[in-house]
Amino acid sequence: MTLEVTLCNSQRFFHSMAIHLAPISSLFLVDIPSSLSEFSGTSLFLSLNFFRSNFPMATRTRSHSSESTSSFVNQNLLKNPEKEVCSFDNADINALRTSGAFSDTAIIRPFDRNIRSDVCSDEWICFSSYPFSLGLRYPFPEFIMEFFRITGLCFAQTMPMVWRVLIVLNQIKTLHIPDLCIEDLPLAYRLRSHGNSRFLLFSTSSNPLILKASKNDDGWQRKFFFVRQNSIPEGKSLPVKWLTSGRV
Predict the structure, then answer these.
(1) CA distances from 95 to 35, 41, 61, 88, 113 (A)
(2) DSSP assignment of 215-229, as one string?
(3) β-pair type (224-228, 124-128)
(4) For residue 215, what pLDDT is reported?
(5) Is the pLDDT of residue 98 over 80?
(6) How far is it, in rounded angstroms, from Cα 179 to Cα 177?
(7) Nearest in space to 82 (alpha carbons), one of 222, 193, 216, 197
């Protein structure tokens, strides 16, 4: 698989460089997982034209089955909550724990089919399992963490295409443009709600920055879990209440 990239650097108005036939795997933290197999045998073309924007963007598992649910407040944002019963069970949690996705000090709440992903809590953070299926570990790279700090978006309401875009841009920043930052994002994308208060990045151009990034993954909404805030870095400062409106 090959990649063609055109990059404009910070004094980005007049600077550009082209990278041809770069291995696509070099843009990811790990080799492309099976969940991205739709890219197999094809070429991914990126046309990256970033200009500095003048405006900012507006483990361990406790096995107690009697974990209290009193700290959870339902935001009632899901239109069909009966269709969004959690499917990420204890076997999945154990596999996640042994994968090294979190440090050994992280406390992951046991599976509970009665709790939905749109709850908020002063004790627990809801994570989608999707970014971990792409090879990410927590804490996420600083570039990605900054996106959530600025937008106020919760992990569980973030659609798969957002994670794909952030991972690719993070690797471009790491490998090619060190001064690339989240404030550059509005030139290429706008944050848009896409039903049930979930959000995606809407391309500002008819030629998307990253092709096929918008492909959805069936059932991702039901794959979530909770981690105790005080058991992970920045846990107390992460957004817990779902964003219901916003544009970036």
Answers:
(1) 16, 29, 11, 11, 18
(2) ---TTGGG-EEEEEG
(3) antiparallel
(4) 80
(5) yes
(6) 6
(7) 222
| Count of C-beta atoms within a 10 Å radius of residue 227 | 22
| Helix, strand, or coil (residue 140) | coil
Cα atoms found within 13 Å of the Cα of residue 239, Cβ hemisphere only: 19
**213 DSSP assignment:** T
| C-alpha to C-alpha distances, 49 to 13, 24, 169, 185, 205, nearest whole angstrom | 9, 19, 12, 10, 11
Averaged confidence pLDDT in the chain = 77
**Cα-based angle 241, 165, 96 (whole degrees, multiple of 5):** 65
Task: Decide if 125 contacts 238 (C-beta within 8 A).
Answer: yes
pTM of the model: 0.73
| Partners of 199 in beta bridges | 158, 193
pLDDT at 107 over 80: yes
- CA dist 221 and 239 (Å) reads 18
pLDDT at 70: 64
**DSSP codes joined into one string, 100-130:** TSS-TT-EEPPP-TT--TTEEESSEEEEESH
Q: What is the pLDDT of residues 61-88, one digit of tens each?
A: 443 444 566 689 999 999 999 999 999 9
Strands (E), the chain: 2-7, 17-23, 44-45, 60-61, 72-74, 107-108, 119-121, 124-128, 189-193, 199-203, 224-228
- C-alpha to C-alpha distance for 149 and 197, rounded to whole angstroms: 18
